[in-house]
Design brief:
GO terms for molecular function: ATP binding; proline-tRNA ligase activity. By secondary structure, this protein is α+β, with helices and mostly antiparallel strands. It is built from 15 helices and 23 strands. The radius of gyration is 26 Å and the shape is globular.
Length: about 500
């Protein structure tokens, strides 16, 4: 998909250069979201100027339009973890093979994806050096050095960095790339209770990123033993769903690692009684994948649709001068509008480019997903008002200049809520509750997210994967929701016929 998208998108930067174009503006997408989702997605992320394809497959340039979204989420999350007394640090990108191999179960899960440095210039390296796919094995040898007694605990570190995971067949911008940005938190505690509490506290921050910033509904739950983090004790996640493809997508994960890594890396401490004990550890992360989920959920046939809280530009002001109109007065009104909104804390700009028509500008900023467009023409000038147009539903309303700030705030709040409500309604319409294997297969073929009673046995999950393997990919567990519906006594597992222990979400996934 990436290479095809590269060809189809090399000219899709907003000028009138593409083959299939709308005549009036030279803008517009050549693929529709419902007709060809993969091509639509590839086109949107390039045409909206979020990414640029790079000459190494699976690597992408994050342009300012995307980077600003990442920075907004980073600002929120960083402040929240600092309230939890978690400190930022930075560990090197390179990992020695000896350290990497120490935690066998863990690294087996990543082995095919590890990229290696084998040369320096033209000289072969005696010892090959790995590039981090994640940093447990990078960081924990030093945790064993820094943690000696109970006073050294808890140790709570986070780093904002990049990681590299090389092995996969279908790179997709944001969703599956060979290098991506993320934060990874690594914490160590004296007790399991402290570790358990933090796992859920971090997971709630991830829910807030998706729901309060990206306007995407997510389900909080626990991963199955088969799907948990390799080498960990248990994994919790927030799960989103893409109705167009019928696939679940893991939004972010918060793992309790238990004492497995403490055992491997000898991370011990002396407790108050002078006894040696092993620490309890967690690790947790979210990545730039979040941005891809946002594009997939909210985007439409005009392009990107940005939730107001993460949009680097919330309001674009476009002058609409007609023939014989007082152009300067209109421009002055646009500048005044931007100043008023900026002083009130909104991210607003005016588009004064004289080589494009107002219609072209409308399409351009719609493609880029700006939540609110304000138009000012001679009539608006005469009535001391502006016309506001919403990106999410194209609704238009005239706002008196006197009420500008208050009305814009209300509209942006409403846009966020409307995006969330629409996404939730679509997601909920895709959830199917099933009790039997036949119902399960029917729902799977209808691209549903399936809630089914399950016996919670690994062999049964492997069997479901094997029985559903096909061109579209196998079905697997997404998560067992914390919010469990009632499970009547005598309910049987949909796949094995054994007594069911819990309700679990199943489906295909990214």
């Amino acid at each position: 998909m990436a290479d095809e998208a590269k060809k189809s998108n090399s000219n899709a930067k907003g000028g009138g250069k593409k083959k299939e174009v709308k005549k009036e503006t030279g803008l517009g997408l050549s693929n529709k979201k419902d007709d060809n989702f993969g091509e639509w997605y590839s086109e949107v992320v390039v045409s909206s100027e979020m990414i640029e394809y790079y000459d190494i497959s699976g690597c992408y340039i994050l342009r300012p339009w995307a980077m600003s979204i990442w920075e907004t989420m980073q600002t929120f999350f960083d402040a929240e973890i600092k309230k939890m007394k978690i400190k930022n640090c930075y560990f090197p990108l390179f990992v020695s093979p000896g350290v990497l191999q120490r935690e066998k179960d863990h690294i087996e899960g990543f082995a095919p994806e590890v990229a290696w440095v084998t040369k320096s210039g033209s000289t072969d390296l005696d010892v090959h050096i790995a590039i981090r796919p994640t940093s447990e094995t990078v960081m924990y040898p030093y945790y064993s050095k820094w943690i000696r007694g109970h006073r050294d605990l808890p140790l709570k570190l986070n780093q904002w960095c990049n990681v590299v995971r090389w092995e996969f067949s279908h790179p997709t911008p944001f969703i599956r790339s060979r290098e991506f940005l993320w934060q990874e938190g690594h914490t160590a505690f004296a007790t399991k209770d402290e570790a358990d509490a933090e796992v859920l506290e971090i997971l709630e921050l991830y829910r807030r990123i998706y729901e309060e910033f990206l306007a995407i509904p997510v389900i909080k739950g626990k991963k199955s033993e088969l799907e948990k983090f390799a080498g960990g004790l248990y994994t919790t996640s927030v799960e989103a769903f893409i109705p167009n493809t019928g696939r679940g997508i893991q939004g972010a994960t918060s793992h309790c690692l238990g004492q497995n890594f403490a055992k491997m890396f000898e991370i011990n401490f002396e407790n108050e009684k002078g006894e040696r004990q092993m620490v309890w550890q967690n690790s947790w992360a979210y990545s730039t994948r979040t941005i891809g989920v946002m594009v997939m959920v909210h985007g439409d046939d005009k392009g990107l649709v940005l939730p107001p809280k993460v949009a680097s530009l919330q309001v674009i002001v476009v002058p609409v001068p007609y023939k014989d109109a007082n152009t300067q007065a209109i421009f002055d009104a646009c500048s005044a509008t931007v100043n008023t909104l900026s002083e009130a804390g909104f991210r607003a700009e005016a588009d004064f480019r004289d080589n494009y028509s107002p219609g072209w500008k409308y399409s351009h900023w719609e493609m880029k997903g700006v939540p609110l467009r304000i138009e000012i023409g001679p009539k608006d000038l005469a009535n001391n008002q502006v016309r506001a147009v919403r990106r999410d539903n194209s609704a238009k309303v005239d706002i008196p200049m006197a009420n500008l700030v208050e009305k814009v705030k209300d509209m942006l709040d409403d846009i966020h809520q409307s995006l969330f409500d629409a996404a939730k309604k679509k997601r909920d319409a895709c959830v199917k509750v099933v009790k039997t294997w036949d119902e399960f297969m029917e729902a799977l073929n209808q691209k549903k997210m399936i809630l089914a009673p399950w016996c919670d046995e690994e062999e049964v999950e492997k069997d479901v994967k094997a029985r559903t393997k096909g061109e579209m990919g196998a079905a697997k567990t997404l998560c067992s929701p914390f919010d469990q519906p009632e499970l009547p006594e005598g309910t049987l597992c949909f796949a094995s016929g054994k007594p069911a222990k819990k309700w679990t979400y199943w489906g295909r996934s990214y």
